[in-house]
Amino acid sequence: MGSGLGNNAERPLTEHILLEYPERPICPHCSRPMRVKSRSKPRIIVDVPGNLEIQTTYYQCGNPFCPGRQAAYVQPENHYAPPDGDYTYAVIAVVCHLRWVRHLTYEEIIAEMVRAHGIRLCLNTVENFLKVYEFGCASKYRPVFIEKVRANGGVILTIDGMLPLKGKQGLYTARDYLTGLALGSSKISKQDEDAIAAFLGDVKKRVEEELGVQVIAIVSDALPAQRLAIERVFPGVPHCLCHYHFYNLVLQGPKALDSSLTTAVRSALRKLYDLQAYRKRKAAAGAGAPVAGDFVTQVLELLLELSNWNRRPNDPVFTGTELVQRTRDVHGLLDAAVTKLDAGTITILTEKVVRRLHARLGEIIEEHATDASELGRIHEYIEEIATVLDDLESSKEEGLGRLKVLRDRLRKYRLSPRCGETERGFIEALMKFVQSKGEHLFNYKVVSGAPTTNNDHELSYKQLKHFLRRVIGHSAANAYLLAHGERIVYVNPSESLEDITNILQATDSNGARKCIAAERKGRDSLMFVIHNPLKWEQKINEIAQLIEIMEVPMIIIS
Known about the structure:
- Helices cover about 55% and strands about 10% of the residues.
- The protein has three domains: about 5-125, no CATH class; about 155-240 and about 450-490, Nucleotidyltransferase, domain 5; about 245-440, no CATH class.
- A hairpin with a 5-residue loop joins strand 6 (about 170-175) and strand 7 (about 180-190).
- The two termini are about 60 Å apart.
- It is built from 20 helices and nine strands.
- The longest helix is centred in the N-terminal third of the chain and has 30 residues, at about 125-150.
- The protein has a five-stranded mixed sheet with strand order 7-6-5-8-9. Strands 1, 2, 3 and 4 form a four-stranded mixed sheet that branches.
- By secondary structure, the chain is of the alpha/beta class.
């Protein structure tokens, strides 16, 4: 649990603690009080206020005829620090609190520990503290989840493959939808059927042997390799394809068109002469300057906001069509003003601006009307599909039948001259999906409590990933998630300092160390060493020392 006292040996000694029982323990063999056999040498460990000197008392039965005389020494539990640890639970708890509650980076934690407590730590020690805490959190909360899984009678398995860091190994994760229990996480470099099947085989074994239940349903993306691997490992188990990923798949073309439409309309608005002039006047007036209440100024304010249009979380799937519609709304205001100007019922000094904006907005709307109409029709199709997929009253067969009727209607329409290119691509993607995988969209109906998406699964890991990125940086966060994707989900960032300490005290420290040591083996490989400048230099020096001690045999030439 540390790498020695190091520079902390110079900290003040605040207390001497003798670990002993209030009353001598009773021998389990002869029922007599044991005697004090010996006391350890005083040992210094680092605590928050200062260093502690701890001495342990060892007991053994004093009866010469009792088997307890040969038994191992009995010693009181150390509530201050883990076995053989150089730091108290209080120190480790402060580090974990700084990380998970205050969201400090490793470097910031090290600096804060020096500033606030005069405790010097290295990166490796901080990481080990955090890993042991994760281990403790998993030990504390996992049994609760297991009990819930068994009460549910089985697992609804949600599977998701993610790429935390572009160009690096992907992370495949599996968890129980009903409880959120993490069931597996593995790095898969080549996401083909065999690799995914191997991962799923491990998950299946764990569910059946460790939890003693069966997988009653599976929810996953629509990736072909993933689907085939699921069929191989879980034959006969209802496989529900994620509706969200279904929409994403069939809407690739329309979403690209919508993005292009948004960019084009936004660019056209920014080029408006009167809007550019207004932007300059507003910049010259300075931020916070009041906006005049006249009609033209208000219209220009609207256009200024529309020219900076960006997708927001609650926006509909096609934001380009929304931008076009809002532009139409502004054009409607100008149209009404122009009508009154033509009738002579109003007179304004900025009449030229009104007419110029009215004409140009009309051109922009007309220029992009075809794309907007095409996306509007696709949006109507999506609403029809959503009505079918989300109908909880109908059976699986009824839902699939209704979806096929819609597909057949669109199949005929795609041959119509009115059908746009993107619209046709959407219809063909829908036809292909319904033909090969349509049944899987409705399998959630045959399993009570099954979800229609694995979004909760994906979101939980994404939120964790984004949180870690803010805390320890982009690359380190992704590496950390890959290494700890299974245990880290049990960490509760709202735990108090006291709760963290209690979790650490209840943790099997030796078990945690073995787990950490096993995870560290990969970092000792030569491939890792040659990419790490410090380890590379260390390796070179080690080899150089071998050269120094080599004996060169003397060759005698006769």
